[in-house]
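Homework-ish question, so no full write-ups if that breaks the rules, but can someone show me the predicted structure for this set?
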Amino acid sequence: MSGGLSDAIAAYLGRTWDEPVEIVDLARISGGASRETYRFDALVGGERRPLILRRDPPGSLIETDRRSEFMALKSFNGRGVAAPEPLILELDGAELERPFFVMARIDGGATASPFQPDPYAPHADAIARDFFSTLGRIAAADPAGLPIAEVFEPPALDACWKRELDYWSGVIEADELHPQPIVRAAIRWLYAHPPPPAQKLSVVHGDYRSGNFLHDGEGKIIAVLDWEMAHLGDPLEDLGWGLDPLWRHTNDSDQVGGMCTKVDALRIWEAASGLKVDPAAFGWWEVFASVKGQAIWISSAREYRDSGFREPILCFSGWYTARRQDEILAAHLARLAA
Amino acid sequence: MTPNVRDVLQGVAVALATPPSPEVGMAYTASRMGMVSTLAVLAAGEADRAARDAITENAAIRALFAGAAVHDADGALTAAAAEADADLAVPALDAANARLRRLLIGLHEKVEAAGDGDMNRKIVALYVRMAQIRRMALGG
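A: Not a homework solution, just the prediction itself:
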């Protein structure tokens, strides 16, 4: 594979590393809906380096800061979390014209499609242990000593919920194309019933769910992906997102992410994090997760229209996924009103 | 609702008419075409159901408004409840749906402020029904 992008990458890396670079096997991959993601090998100094390029697209599912994603990877790579090694961050775009970063590529793994009914069989239990204990270790880390702290002002423990809710309800306010009474009712409930302060400040991955990691097919997670929404906040936020019924893979209401039961997920997370799941607080973050999801899907529909109907994934998210999220939100509201 | 069938099919047409750039590769192109074909199948199902679903949802919202006189100081809900969908073209039905949904949001806010638990439960039950009406099946 060759062409303009290949030449641009070669020119950039050659200039950055100060030696000739040849790019081979460049191909776009589907990972990460908010960045253009490419895999390639860089031939440099007699070595072949397997790499990933994550470049800002003209339009995307979510508007995120590539620096925060880069620093989140830097925070956890080599620290007990299978975060790929971040290598180069280029905010000006340079030869590639749009901001991007380059990270090491981890080969040999598989991701789960949302439409696979049993994506991790027969290793679902092992994946569940790895998945929720990894999240527990992310939650347990002290952000103050991590590179990501350079990007974000730490919120007060009692302000984590409001900062996130203000942001995502603002996205809905700005991007809604058709009136959405269900998510608006959920937003009002969240404001009227704030959770207790976070028990600690944690790094929040922001999109920690089934489908956003590579596994080796034998029960081991080899790469945690898609850190573009990483921030500092309440550790229960990631847990609520990961357990959202949207990521279930089946219609089994007791099942989480195609892996295990909710009870098992929370038990594994508590053991790994040393933290507790307060049911009232977690209930708030469960509803919030569905609101955040709907904000992303509403934003997708807006971007799909405004960008000239170019990206099929934006259409699917803003249409099919949004309607599924409405079902989940309505079920939350019915439970709360009972 | 958004995107509507017209938006979806425009995207399908754009995707089919746009040649992949050289650096994209076969795997990504195949994945993208898989998504495009899924959208086309969903659009076929939606084209069959869109008018019926909008009429059903609009009728359900109007039925709720008919029983909400206590929260209807300006008469807007009563007036909306008395309307019917005369124009059965999907864009007209969607426009009526948008007006009804805006009124529904306003009603729910009033109901919450008044602490009317009974009406709140009726509205939430309507939300559950609306979500079911709009459910999409990947089989079309």
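Now go work out the reasoning yourself. Hint: Chain B has five helices and no strands.
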